[in-house]
């Protein structure tokens, strides 16, 4: 069994706007997304989220709250992605373009879903209403979702995929 690849994703939300970044290179190039990346050895998931946010758009979040856990399977790849989603409403610094991302504020009613990962249109509404979520998406390539399992949760449980397995979903 291959261990999941641990990743973070941070969405800064202030009232009616969300800070997204246009991915200039690497995984997800050409798409708008939150800020994040791989968890490195020796750091907690939350530390990784704060580090990636700062590296990719130059801001420091005051307090990151973990709001989502997403598992992604890509057909033909035995390694799943495990993305820990965080949010914050206050931060220090001015969002600034980096080598990897070009930040831009979006009104919550004009989120550019057509230029984002296709899973986002499913879980963003839960995020935008201030709730937590847990999900599994099976992709074929980077554009086609074959299977979706998503639920709103009170509390995040890191072994929700066990629930999906038991229920014959994965
Ligand atoms: C498959 O669906 C996805 N949807 C969304 N919304 N976000 C995703 C999806 N898969 C991955 N992500 C996020 C998770 C991370 O925030 C980034 C990917 O991080 P990256 O591979 O660029 O990580 P880095 O550490 O920055 O990588 P390098 O060291 O190679 O630059 O996308």
Automatic annotation (TrEMBL):
Keyword line: Cytoplasm, Hydrolase, Magnesium, Metal-binding, Nucleus, RNA-binding
Subcellular location: Cytoplasm; Nucleus
Cross-referenced InterPro entries: 8ODP (IPR003563), Nudix_hydrolase (IPR020476), NUDIX_hydrolase-like_dom_sf (IPR015797), NUDIX_hydrolase_CS (IPR020084), NUDIX_hydrolase_dom (IPR000086)
PROSITE patterns attached to this UniProt entry: NUDIX (PS51462), NUDIX_BOX (PS00893)
Catalysed reactions, semicolon-separated: O(6)-methyl-dGTP + H2O = O(6)-methyl-dGMP + diphosphate + H(+); N(6)-methyl-ATP + H2O = N(6)-methyl-AMP + diphosphate + H(+); 8-oxo-dGTP + H2O = 8-oxo-dGMP + diphosphate + H(+); 8-oxo-dATP + H2O = 8-oxo-dAMP + diphosphate + H(+)
Top EC class, one word: hydrolase
Enzyme Commission code(s) on record: 3.6.1.56
One of the record's GO molecular function terms: RNA binding
Swiss-Prot/TrEMBL GO biological process terms: DNA protection
SUPFAM superfamilies associated with the record: Nudix (SSF55811)
Nudix hydrolase domain boundaries: 1-132
Cofactor(s) the protein requires to work: Mg(2+)
One GO cellular component, as annotated: nucleus
CDD domains: NUDIX_MTH1_Nudt1 (cd03427)
SUBUNIT field: Monomer.
Role: Oxidized purine nucleoside triphosphate hydrolase which is a prominent sanitizer of the oxidized nucleotide pool. Catalyzes the hydrolysis of 2-oxo-dATP (2-hydroxy-dATP) into 2-oxo-dAMP. Also has a significant hydrolase activity toward 2-oxo-ATP, 8-oxo-dGTP and 8-oxo-dATP. Through the hydrolysis of oxidized purine nucleoside triphosphates, prevents their incorporation into DNA and the subsequent transversions A:T to C:G and G:C to T:A. Also catalyzes the hydrolysis of methylated purine nucleoside triphosphate preventing their integration into DNA.
Family of this protein: Belongs to the Nudix hydrolase family.
Protein's UniProt name: Oxidized purine nucleoside triphosphate hydrolase
Originating organism: Lingula anatina (Brachiopod)
Lineage: Eukaryota, Metazoa, Spiralia, Lophotrochozoa, Brachiopoda
């Amino acid at each position: 069994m291959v261990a999941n690849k641990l990743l973070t994703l941070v969405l800064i939300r202030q009232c009616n706007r969300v800070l997204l970044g246009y991915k200039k290179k690497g995984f997800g190039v050409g798409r708008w997304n939150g800020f994040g990346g791989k968890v490195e050895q020796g750091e907690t998931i939350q530390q990784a989220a704060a580090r990636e946010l700062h590296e990719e758009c130059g801001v420091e979040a005051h307090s990151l709250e973990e709001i989502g856990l997403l598992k992604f399977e890509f057909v033909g790849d035995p390694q799943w992605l495990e993305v820990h989603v965080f949010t914050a409403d206050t931060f220090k610094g001015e969002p600034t373009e980096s080598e990897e991302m070009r930040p831009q504020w979006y009104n919550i009613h004009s989120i550019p879903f057509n230029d984002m990962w296709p899973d986002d249109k499913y879980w963003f509404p839960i995020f935008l209403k201030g709730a937590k979520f847990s999900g599994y998406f099976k992709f074929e390539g980077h554009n086609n979702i074959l299977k979706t399992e998503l639920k709103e949760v009170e509390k995040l449980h890191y072994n929700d995929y066990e629930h999906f397995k038991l229920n014959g979903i994965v």
